[in-house]
Amino acid sequence: MLVILSNLMLYFLVDPSDIYASERDPGSKDALDFRHHNYKEMRKVRLMKSVTEECPDITHIYTIGKSYMGFKLYVMEISDNPGKHELGEPEFRYVAGMHGNEALGRELVLNLMQYLCREYKKGNQRVVRLVTETRIHLLPSMNPDGYEAAYEKGSELAGWAEGRYSFEGIDMNHNFPDLNNIMWDAQEKAEDPSKVAPETRAVISWMQDIPFVLSANLHGGELVVTYPFDCTRDWAPQEDTPTADDAFFRWLAAVYASTNLNLHKGWYA
């Protein structure tokens, strides 16, 4: 009894300032496929295909278009009525891999597919509620061209920007046109010189086809939550330019951040 109590006490007395404590945990208890997956492994061989075979009643794979190099942009839908929009049921999407060399978000979304499938089958009430009351769309790789370039060269030889941008050299994080800039460009020039990547156009069409109520985009390299804001014509960084939904976005970001101790406390891993 003393040994058990001592172990419990040691467990609960872990130094809260030790942000690396969880990294010394000997492995995960989840039977998920924790590794990097290239395009073929992601779609045809392992994860997406295996998840649909394991949970055919709640999953559906579709594509929203192709990358510049012709890779299909695959989406996994998870719902109790896959392939069908249900009136009053919110549509949610997770997008990852906008920067092709930021692999963590891609793998998290792929593992989320596995997790939702298996926990739904186990009867996990939280997951069952998510699947039955929400139509979830998961796009693990918005920039497959960039990922394949970075994956092929490997982290030892690639520079920090290898695979970050699209094949055309476009940073898709700043590639979604907004009405303000279109109007300002029209005033100053005869035509809009900006170029929209095919991957960006595919996501825009996707947003127009499905009435998403919420979306999140996963990036790698920083521990932060960002939310939408307006821009100014002179890009003055000190100027506050909130959107009409600023209060909601701030609340949502705070709720999300509060579930992660390191993020909530402002600690950096």
UniProtKB/TrEMBL annotation:
The keyword Cytoplasm does not apply. This is Carboxypeptidase X, M14 family member 1. Belongs to the peptidase M14 family. Keywords: Carboxypeptidase, Hydrolase, Metal-binding, Metalloprotease, Protease, Signal, Zinc. GO terms for cellular component: extracellular space. The lineage of its organism: Eukaryota, Metazoa, Chordata, Craniata, Vertebrata. PROSITE patterns: CARBOXYPEPT_ZN_1 (PS00132), CARBOXYPEPT_ZN_2 (PS00133), PEPTIDASE_M14 (PS52035). Its cofactor is Zn(2+). Residues 1-16 form the signal peptide. GO terms for molecular function: metallocarboxypeptidase activity; zinc ion binding. Residues 35-269 form the Peptidase M14 domain. It comes from Seriola lalandi dorsalis.
